[in-house]
């Protein structure tokens, strides 16, 4: 502490009374200095983010003007123009600041799309109405509002009785007798209220409500199905923790710390055991009634697929290629919802398809030796299938 | 120690950072003037800045925090001092202006952050050339872009940043400004234990950069139901699509059900399971898909260069000393995570009726117990050729890039009911964790004053997996950090979280990333 700050710390917030003992004064001053440091560190961080963003905005703006000035006449990355704004100078292909960008530059442009950043959330804490005349960068400040997520979305309950009821498991959008996946009409819902989607089982290709997926796959794929699960469950409830002994990755003695798998701990949304059984029986071909039901479901599925470009072909069975082929989503906040209970839209609106073009992937840069050209991969088992469905994909979803 | 020793000028020519599109070339007009005075000015400025950063980050703070006042006495301050860039003086904030007027020195380095203050601007300036040096010093500890990070031998995997430049996260060019990796994952029926682990993978910079740089291309992989392909698809969906709704991890789930890992047979039920076991399952599965294909053997020193090994694996060394002949046996084994028992410690706490209310433990106490203290054991000594009493001490030989820690909250009790019990004792854990005391370096040499070494062993909290509620009916959620912002992931829901939410949670799994990579 300097001679001046012996009485109090630098922040001057935590101050001992004048009559206090010298030791007490010092401890107050120390505490006050520590408080100052915390605030100082925080400010330096925020200052860096803000000032860098504004400085870069000034640079982006003046570069844009320079590019406009040459009007694409040259491909020279450093065109020979000189442009000056209030905040920066463009000269010899370099940008130099003029003054403090915190004072000269008021908005922040996204370094990627060069659109202005929305600076306040649109809802919840600290919300402000965005200027309707401005097209903002798509990266918005996150929303902080109880009951809503960072994007301002909320969800309807997964089904009547919060997934406890059996009915909503056989979600079939084309069967009028099948219950609506969600309570209430979809039309009553504002657009930021989402419903739970369905996904296609990689084995039986049935469309399963996501909240049922684990149970379904347990019985449909299982580790050879229900019996293995049963056996595993049996083994577990016998208290044998043998399985995890093979796992050497934890230091010795750590295994006892993991919860006993046989604890049968369940999430709030778990299903009852008998439901699980019923699901298993459904795919039992020896039961004709159930079999018919399943076939029925499969037929309907085709219609569903016709609507969706994501068609898993028959020889896709062995290897599901990416969720783009698997997932369909219900979006019910649509007029079409009147006719069918649920309208199925492809999950990916953009016709992006795996393997179709290497450009599809977001890249960090050349990681590995250059990729084989997409054509070179055609020889593969499922390559034809993909090019086949890619035609479907590139046509706009109906 | 007010004046720092002047640094002899090296003959090397330093360079101002080349102009980048969308960025001004200099931090301010005054730095522009400084750099345009010629090569000599550039050289001395950069050399002085490097020397100042070294004295701030690699030596005792006593040096950089001690200033000499113009009127005589030296003072050591708790609050920031300012190190003149143009001469070896360290100044208090009050004295800075006077020094500037007298000597016409205009640039000063803040002793807490290493940031550069410009007196003409009367503001901190963020100059691309200086800022690059500062970030590199705080990260890898070295100014060089090509040299190894310092204390390389302390780390399990080679430096993923150096070995694969595409791992550098700042180069990420996502498909859209909206695609930011922040999405929930739907609960597919008691699968929240999987979701929390998947989120921890999704927000792990090493794994993210691996998958986004085509580390494992699902279009090039023939393994049926490959879980690494499913991860690849998931990373693409999170970082390339504009979707903000939840993700359906159907491929992960089917890959999981189809997996033939018998070791994890017990996971394969539709009942809620243990997130830690799922983490081990996934790590092992991904190692097999990306690594040497060998199953890591029990207690062995398995070395593999796959992304999972580069990310999570470290090495433990246990030293057993025979109490009879003082013979020493060393054993080294790889670890994926550190499992810390809570039961004994929390019982001890309870008995003592100690000062701390409710028997709160700290993470460091739990680590002390396992990796500093020694315990007694029986062992067969080769020297004595008989069973002997021995002391066994375990410490970390190699630190991983991402340190995963399990707090053993679930204690399996052999008894009538054969049920697992949950230990609810709160364990305080820091945002920043110094792992140096738990390494064998801490024992083998005097590291008290080695600030550089300590800094290279500093970890930042990345993910916290929390189990809420009773063991049978509980639920998993997690907190992940993206940059400086924390998010709470609860199945399909993603919300903003405060640091206090994170630090007050009852952690079950903790993931820390080494500072030089975060
Ligand atoms: Zn943008
Ligand atoms: Zn199925
Ligand atoms: Zn000076
Ligand atoms: Zn300046
Ligand atoms: Zn694969
Ligand atoms: Zn490996
Ligand atoms: Zn002996």
TrEMBL record, chain A:
Report biased composition (Polar residues) as residue ranges: 235-257, 388-398
Residues in coiled coil:
none
Query: Which stretches are tagged as biased composition: Acidic residues?
Result: 274-284
Q: Where is the composition biased (Low complexity)?
A: 295-307
In residue numbers, the region (Disordered) covers 159-191, 231-398
What protein does this entry describe? Transcriptional activator
User: Which organism does this record belong to?
Assistant: Achaetomium macrosporum
Taxonomy of the source species: Eukaryota, Fungi, Dikarya, Ascomycota, Pezizomycotina
Automatic annotation (TrEMBL), chain B:
GO terms under biological process:
protein deubiquitination
Naming one, the record's GO cellular component terms include: nucleus
Entry-linked SUPFAM superfamilies = Cysteine proteinases (SSF54001), RING/U-box (SSF57850)
Protein's UniProt keywords contain Cell inner membrane:
no
Q: Which UniProt keywords apply?
A: Hydrolase
Which residues does the annotated region (Disordered) include? Answer: 1-21
Q: Does the keyword Hydrolase apply?
A: yes
Question: Which residues are the signal sequence here?
Answer: none
Q: Where is the USP domain?
A: 183-515
Per its record, what are the GO molecular function terms?
A: cysteine-type deubiquitinase activity
The cross-references to InterPro entries, in alphabetical order and at most eight, read: Papain-like_cys_pep_sf (IPR038765), Peptidase_C19 (IPR050164), Peptidase_C19_UCH (IPR001394), USP (IPR028889), Znf_RING/FYVE/PHD (IPR013083)
Concerning Pfam families, the annotation shows: UCH (PF00443)
User: What is the protein name stated in its UniProt record?
Assistant: Ubiquitin carboxyl-terminal hydrolase
Q: Which organism is it from?
A: Achaetomium macrosporum
């Amino acid at each position: 502490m300097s001679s001046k700050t012996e009485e109090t710390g630098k922040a001057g917030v935590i101050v001992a009374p004048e009559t206090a003992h010298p030791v007490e004064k010092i401890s107050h001053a120390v505490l006050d200095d520590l408080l100052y440091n915390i605030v100082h560190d925080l400010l330096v961080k925020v200052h860096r983010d803000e000032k860098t963003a504004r400085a870069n905005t000034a640079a982006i703006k003046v570069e844009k003007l320079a590019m406009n000035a040459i009007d694409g006449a040259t491909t020279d990355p450093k065109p020979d123009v000189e442009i000056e704004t209030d905040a920066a100078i463009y000269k010899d292909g370099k940008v130099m600041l003029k003054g403090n960008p915190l004072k000269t530059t008021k908005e922040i442009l996204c370094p990627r799309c060069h659109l202005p950043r929305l600076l306040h959330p649109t809802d919840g804490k600290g919300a402000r109405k965005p200027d309707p005349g401005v097209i903002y960068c798509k990266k918005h400040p996150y929303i902080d509002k109880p009951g809503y997520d960072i994007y301002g979305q909320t969800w309807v309950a997964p089904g009547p009785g919060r997934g406890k009821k059996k009915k909503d498991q056989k979600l079939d959008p084309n069967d009028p007798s099948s219950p609506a996946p969600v309570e209430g009409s979809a039309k009553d819902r504002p657009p930021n209220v989402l419903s739970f989607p369905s996904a296609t089982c990689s084995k039986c290709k049935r469309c399963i409500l996501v909240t049922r997926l684990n149970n379904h796959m347990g019985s449909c794929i299982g580790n050879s199905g229900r019996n293995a699960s049963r056996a595993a469950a049996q083994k577990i409830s016998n208290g044998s923790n043998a399985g995890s002994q093979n796992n050497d990755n934890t230091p010795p003695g750590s295994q006892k710390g993991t919860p006993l798998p046989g604890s049968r701990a369940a999430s709030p949304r778990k299903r009852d055991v008998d439901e699980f059984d019923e699901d298993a029986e459904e795919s039992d071909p020896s039961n004709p009634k159930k079999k018919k039901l399943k076939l029925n479901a499969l037929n309907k599925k085709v219609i569903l697929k016709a609507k969706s470009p994501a068609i898993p072909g028959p020889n896709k069975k062995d290897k599901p290629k990416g969720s783009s082929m698997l997932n369909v989503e219900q979006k019910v906040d649509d007029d079409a919802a009147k006719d069918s209970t649920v309208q199925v839209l492809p999950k990916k609106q953009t016709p992006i398809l795996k393997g179709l073009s290497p450009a599809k992937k977001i890249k960090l840069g050349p990681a590995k030796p250059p990729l084989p050209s997409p054509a070179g991969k055609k020889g593969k088992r499922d390559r034809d299938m993909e090019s086949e469905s890619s035609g479907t994909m590139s046509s706009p979803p109906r | 120690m007010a004046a720092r020793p002047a640094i002899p000028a090296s003959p090397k020519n330093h360079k101002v950072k080349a102009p980048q599109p969308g960025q001004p070339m200099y931090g301010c007009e005054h730095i522009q003037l400084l750099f345009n005075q010629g090569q000599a000015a550039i050289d001395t400025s950069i050399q002085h800045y490097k020397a100042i950063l070294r004295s701030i980050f690699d030596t005792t703070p006593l040096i950089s925090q001690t200033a000499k006042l113009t009127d005589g006495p030296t003072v050591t301050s708790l609050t920031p001092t300012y190190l003149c860039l143009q001469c070896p003086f360290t100044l208090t904030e009050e004295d800075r202006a006077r020094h500037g007027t007298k000597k016409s020195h205009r640039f000063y380095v803040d002793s807490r952050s290493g940031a550069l203050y410009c007196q003409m601007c009367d503001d901190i300036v963020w100059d691309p050339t200086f800022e690059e040096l500062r970030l590199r010093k705080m990260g890898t500890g070295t100014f060089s872009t090509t040299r190894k990070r310092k204390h390389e031998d302390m780390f399990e995997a080679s430096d993923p940043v150096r070995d694969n430049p595409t791992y550098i996260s700042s180069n990420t060019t996502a498909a859209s400004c909206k695609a930011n990796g922040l999405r929930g994952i739907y609960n597919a029926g008691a699968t929240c234990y999987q979701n929390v682990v998947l989120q921890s993978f999704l927000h792990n910079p090493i794994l993210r950069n691996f998958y986004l740089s085509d580390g494992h291309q699902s279009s090039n992989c023939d393994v049926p139901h490959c879980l690494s392909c499913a991860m690849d698809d998931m990373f693409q969906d999170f970082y390339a699509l504009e979707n903000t709704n939840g993700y359906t991890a159907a491929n992960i789930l089917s890959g999981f059900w189809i997996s033939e890992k018998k070791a994890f047979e017990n996971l394969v039920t539709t009942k809620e399971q243990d997130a830690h076991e799922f983490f081990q399952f996934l790590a092992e599965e991904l190692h097999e898909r990306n690594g040497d294909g060998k199953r890591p053997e029990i207690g062995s020193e398995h070395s593999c260069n796959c992304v999972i090994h580069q990310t999570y694996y470290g090495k433990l060394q246990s030293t057993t000393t025979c109490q009879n002949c003082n013979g020493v046996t060393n054993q080294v084994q790889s670890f994926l995570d550190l499992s810390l028992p809570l039961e004994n410690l929390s019982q001890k706490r309870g008995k003592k009726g100690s000062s701390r209310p409710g028997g709160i433990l700290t993470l460091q106490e739990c680590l002390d117990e396992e990796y500093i203290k020694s315990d007694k054991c029986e062992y067969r000594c080769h020297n004595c050729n008989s069973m002997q009493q021995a002391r066994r001490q375990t410490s970390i030989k190699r630190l991983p890039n991402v340190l995963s820690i399990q707090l053993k909250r679930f204690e399996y009790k052999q008894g009538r009911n054969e049920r697992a019990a949950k230990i609810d004792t709160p364990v305080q854990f820091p945002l920043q964790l110094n792992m140096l005391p738990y390494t064998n370096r801490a024992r083998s040499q005097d590291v008290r004053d080695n600030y550089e070494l300590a800094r290279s062993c500093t970890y930042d909290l990345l993910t916290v997996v929390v189990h809420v509620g009773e063991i049978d009916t509980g639920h998993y959620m997690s907190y992940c950090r993206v940059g400086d912002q924390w998010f709470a992931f609860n199945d399909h829901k993603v919300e903003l979280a405060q640091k206090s939410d994170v630090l007050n949670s009852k952690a079950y799994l903790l993931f820390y990333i080494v500072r030089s990579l975060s």
